[in-house]
Amino acid sequence: MDLKLTNKVAIVLAASKGLGRAVATTLSSEGAKVIIGSRDKAELEKTAAEIQQQTGNEVVAMPIDMSKGEDIAAFIKTVGEKFGHIDILLNNAGGPPFDKFENFDDVQWQKAFELNLLSMARTSRLVLPYMKKTGSGRIINVISGSVKSVLANSVLSTAMRMGVVGMAKMMADEFGPYNITVNNVAPGLILTERIKHTFPKDQDPEKVMHEKAKNIPLGRIGKPEEFAAMVAFLASEQASYISGTTIQVDGGANRAIF
Hints:
Layout: E1 9-13, H1 18-29, E2 33-37, H2 41-55, E3 59-61, H3 69-83, E4 88-91, H4 106-134, E5 137-142, H5 155-175, E6 180-187, H6 193-196, H7 205-212, H8 224-235, E7 246-249
Parallel strand pairs: 1-2, 1-4, 2-3, 4-5, 5-6, 6-7
Helix pairs in contact: 1-2, 1-8, 3-4, 4-5
């Protein structure tokens, strides 16, 4: 299937590794002009070079701290001025820490708000003029399966991700007349380096994965490229009638009906 992404300008955030990197690679392989952002400049530039070598398409690396409004504004302005239009925005940021509700203070709540909710509001607001100008656009938010099924000790993540779900619904209403879609993608257990680092050091990784996969109907942990495939589809012309929804990529692990 031709996703018709050739020469589309795509911003992919938190893209130096993990799910963000997988999405950037997939979009680049589909012909999009990909701009990747994260805080670690050296790692980001290394990732951009590797993706470019793999796909044969230019990938631009631009450092950004998603918790800082001035960084976000400068990033979006630079991309807009360089390319003249922005077609795809993948909102993505690292998750807040896990712990019991009673253990989080105001500072930790504020950090989670700025990184996992406010940052997505800022980027979406700032790309809107560029998308309105071309009469189309795709805004895709990476959230968490915790919006569909409670995860232990995930109060910060759940609260902020639920905020993103509500915001995306409102944005879909407002942006629809401009042919701009807004959707959320909620990953389940995907085998990124971050997940691997949570495995007990004294256990065989294969056995750990086998145990973790027992409650997944497909019987395995997902691959980053499988998650990226869903994002690429939502970014495509073929997904032009999908907006305001949250799609899970979890191998059927979530048992909720709604």
